[in-house]
Amino acid sequence: MLFSDTFIESGLDADLVALARKVLDQQRITRSEGNLLYRSFPPGILAYLADEVRRRKHGEVVYFVRNIHLEPTNICIHHCRFCSYSARVSGKAWDLTMEEMCQKIREAPPGVSEIHITGAVARDRGIDHYAGLLRDIRRLRPDIHIKAFSAIELDHIFDVSGLSDEEGLKILQSAGLDSIPGGGAEIFEPSVRERICPDKSSSERWLAIHRSAHQLGIPSNATMLYGHIETIEDRIDHLDRLRCLQDETNGFRAFIPLKFKNKRNELSDVPETTLLDDMKTFSISRIYLDNFPHLKAYWPMLGKDATRLSLSFGVDDIDGTISDSTRIYSMAGANDQHPVMAVEEMEEMAQVMGRKTVERKYEVRF
Ligand code: V47
User: What are the CB-based long-range contacts (under 8 Å, 24+) for 3-6?
Assistant: First the structure.
């Protein structure tokens, strides 16, 4: 008998043992099996299964990137109830000029190879403004990977400019856009989405924009904002819609579960999830999304300790060095009010788990 057989059979009913074997045999699990994993599996066994899936995909490696975020403005047309960041909620507004944004690029620490641009949905700004920003950044840093604008921002930019998704994406791509971040997905289930972000682009629009991007060769990430008013079934529904699109396009790189933080927003009465729920969410995401290459723990939101732990629950990517360049999570109450992680700290995090770091670098484009 294999070690894994002994381990699995030690505490589980026969139907759960069969499901665990299915995962280990690399067979795809169904929605109802996803729900069963959430509700009936001990966390230790979930960790074991998710870690097996991760190991088969990546071996003993933890990916990271030297990156900065650029958050152009927080003056937003939308009213998301989970948001602590918009000027309307925080009472602190900013709107950076092109020169201020370029200065942030010039000041990026040495070695930074990726810039992540996302922020509020600005009312009147069309494609020329965003294409101009991309071109300026590209001029300053021809070698940097530009991951920019969530599908929600893109939806509005294309609408204001009277462009189809394909037309808009092609303009941004030729101005320097390399990939699209995963923000704005929240929860796809329509009745939950209606309650937490009533005036935001629909789930169908989010998925359609990512589909068009993938068809043009622009890869993207996907997120899920969990731990507010959604059910376990809603989380599985979210994963299922992503898995279906990935079957069609194969354009997603990473899935990033985002834990809802409840400080200074309209959902502050909702308690935050437990560490156990967070780790189960990572494991089940890793198992369910069998066609996603990476599972990322975004440490500025999760915290460094929980990120370290998540490496045992299916995570292979811990995002980046950040250099204190994002406010979304600090404003919602994250522990790190000035998020920075040195490369040495990431190396140590991986080493404790018996793994080594690999810096995620993209092909240089000119
Ligand atoms: O869509 C907003 C989330 C997202 C809160 O692609 C909140 O590599 C928790 O998408 N509590 C934006 N979450 C950030 C994002 C992201 C982050 C890191 C990496 C990548 C990537 C993408 O932040 C929003 C929303 O889901 N968010 N407020 C809050 N109170």
Answer: 4/48, 4/52
Which is the closest atom of ligand 1 to the Cα of 181?
Answer: 6
Ligand 1 within 6 A of 318 CB?
Answer: no
29 DSSP 8-state letter: P
CATH 1.10.10.10 fits 54-359, yes or no: no
Chunked mean pLDDT (size 10), the chain, 366 residues:
62 90 97 97 95 97 95 95 92 94 93 94 95 97 96 98 98 98 98 98 98 98 98 98 98 97 96 97 98 96 94 96 76 76 92 94 53
Could you tell me where in the chain the CATH 3.20.20.70 domains are found?
Answer: 54-359
Determine which residue's CA is closest to atom 6 belonging to ligand 1. 181
Own/partner pairs for 207-210, CB < 8 Å, 24+ apart? Answer: 207/241, 207/245, 208/165, 209/151, 209/154, 209/155, 209/165, 209/169, 209/180, 210/151, 210/180, 210/245, 210/249, 210/251, 210/252
221 lines ligand 1 (CB under 6 A): yes
